[in-house]
Amino acid sequence: MSRRVADQLHVCTAARSALRAVRACSYPPRGTRSYGPTRAAALRGGDNRRLEDAACLVMIETAAGVAQADAIAATEGVHGILVCPTDLAISLGLGPDAPLEHPATEVPCKAS
């Protein structure tokens, strides 16, 4: 199934923050995201089933996030992880000019 990318990205450091991101990206009853203008479009004949197609992407930018990468990836409702290498390098004390292929910025994660 092709998913529409959500318009929110959340920095995650653990599975519980990934679960909060899923809830923030998901509409009720699964989550807490507001219907806002989407509801108005649905009342004008839009397809409410499209609301279930939103993807939840999370970001890992810290050493704590790297340590919890598998748990974050295993969180139900997380569809992808964006690793921000420059922010991660800064949080690891390497500075913004660290090479992208630096071993400390690699995030091992089991495929789900």
Task: Give a short synopsis of this structure.
The protein has 112 residues and is an alpha/beta fold.
Cα shape: elongated
Strand element count: 3
Major sheet: arrangement of strands? 1-2-3
Distance N to C terminus = 16 Å
> Helicity level, as a percent range?
25-40%
What structural class results from the helix and strand content?
Answer: alpha/beta
Q: State which percent range the strand residues make up.
A: 15-25%
- Rg, alpha carbons: 16 Å
How are helices and strands ordered from N to C? EHHEHHEH
Largest sheet composition: 3 strands, parallel
The number of helical segments is 5
Low-confidence stretches: none
Structure report:
The chain has 112 residues and is an alpha/beta fold. The protein contains five helices and three strands; from the N terminus they run E-H-H-E-H-H-E-H. It is elongated and about 50 Å long. The mean pLDDT is 77.
Question: What is the fold's blueprint, element by element?
Answer:
Blueprint: E1 4-11, H1 15-25, H2 36-43, E2 54-60, H3 63-67, H4 69-73, E3 80-83, H5 85-91
Parallel strand pairs: 1-2, 2-3
